[in-house]
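Me: I hope this is not a bother. Any chance you could explain this protein sequence and its C-alpha cells? It all follows right here:
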Amino acid sequence: MTTSPEAVSLSPEHVPMMRDIVDAQFPSAIAELGRLVKIPGIAWDAFDANNLELSAEAVAKLLRELGIFEVVEIRRAEAKPGVLGAPAVIATRAAKNGRPTVLLYAHHDVQPPGDDDQWKTPPFQATLIDGRLFGRGAADDKAGIVAHLTALKALAIALDGDIDLGISMFIEGEEEAGSPSFRNFLEENRVDLAADLIVVADSANWSIDVPALTTSLRGLVSQVVEVTTLDHSVHSGMFGGAIPDAMTATIRLLATLHDENGDVAVEGLHIAPPSGLTYDDETLRQDSGLLDGVAQMGTGDAIDRIWNRPAITVIGIDGQSVALSSNTMLPSVKAKISMRIAPGDNPERALQALQRHLEQNVPFGARLSFGETELGKPHAAPTDTWSHRLATQALTAAWGKESVNIGIGGSIPFIADLVELFPSAQILVTGVEDPDSRAHSPNESLHLETLRRAILAESLVLLEANEILNP
C-alpha cells in the first residue's frame, strides 16, 4: 500500500500494534540510556576529549547493532582551519521503491555538570526517582538518541525488517559547545544527509501531560562591550564624586537596555504574533524558580515575552571581584550582552540596533568599544505540511491529549543551516524534555513516561512515512 504525501495520515490500527512493540523494547531503551549517561562527553576545551570519543563509539555501536544501516561511521569536520571539531556519528540506508528519506538528528555531547554539591544524585550515574531518570544528558540529549534508536527498532519489528524508507542519522558531538564545525560538516556530508524530512529531537513538550511540536525558536545576538573612562586606576577617595569610574558608567549603560516595565528598550527589534497559549503565574514561578515576592519583568502575556518578543540578559561582567576589591576606581569594564530575537527578525539587523542603542546611551562621554559577537538566526516552521499533520496526529495518539505548537525562548541556530542547505526538506523539532527537566542545570532529569510516548509517536511517523510514494 502506498499513498501520496498530501494524503498521508495516521492509521488508527497502527497505534496499539506499535504501542505493544515500544512497551516491549522500553526496558532495554532505559538501560541503553543509563549506559550513555555514564560517559561524560563534554565538547569544551577544559574537559577530557577522550570521553567524546568514547561517547561517539558507544552511539556508533548501538546503531550498528540495529542491523538496518548500510553505513555507520564516526566523522569530523574542521571547526576552523587546521582544527577538527568533535566526533559525530553518521548512519545511512538508501530509500527503496520511491520512498522518502528521513534524517534523524540528536547530539551525544552534554553540558558540564557544574557544582557537584548542587546535585542530589551523581551527575554521571543514571538514577531513577519517582518516575524520573536523573543524570547529566539524561534528557538533553541522550534521550533524543535513545528515542530515535528505539523508534527504529520498533519500525524494523513492525515491518519484519522490510523497510523501504530511506533513513539517515546524524548524532552531533558538539552542540553544547555551539556547534563550531556544524556548517562545514553539513557541507562535507551533504549527499549522505540529504532528506525529505528532518526530525530534530532536541526540544521539549508543553508538559508531561500535553505533547508539542516546536514551531518557533528565537534567534541569538551576543555582544561583548568594553566601557573605558580612565587611562589608569585611581583612588576612589581621592577622585570619587568628580570623575566617573568604568563600573558606574557600565551599570548605567546596561540599565538603559530595559524600560521602567522591564521591556526591552532597544528600538527596531521585531515582535512576532502572539501564540494564543497562556502561561499562568504560578506555573511560571514553579518552572523557573522565581522567588516569592519577586515580580515578573515586561508587559503582555508571559508566554509571548518568552517566545515571541526580544529579551536581553547581561550574562557576564569583567570588573573586580568582591574578594579582591579595594578603594579603587576601575578604568575599564567589559560586559557580555545576550539578546534573544523574535522569530522573523534578522540577527545582523538586530545587532546593528543593539550597537546603535549602546552608542546613543553611553553615559559621561565614556569610550565604548565592541568586542566579540555571536549571531544565530531565529526559526519559524510552517504548520501546513504533511509531516506536521502526521506528527501532530501521532503525538496526540501517543499522549491521549491534543498536541500543541509551541515556541522556545532559547535558540537552536543550526536549524537555520539545515533550512539553507536542505531547502526542500521539511523539518520537525520534537523532544522528550518537559518544564521540569532542568537541562543545563544541576539535577537534570527525564520523565520516563514522556520518553515512552515520544518513542511511540516517532515510530508511528516512521511507519506511515514508509508508505509514502515520493512525487
Observations:
- The CA atoms of residues 224 and 336 lie 4 Å apart.
- The two ends are 15 Å apart (CA to CA).
- The mean pLDDT is 95.
- Residues 220-292+301-375 form a domain with the Alpha-Beta Plaits fold (CATH 3.30.70.360).
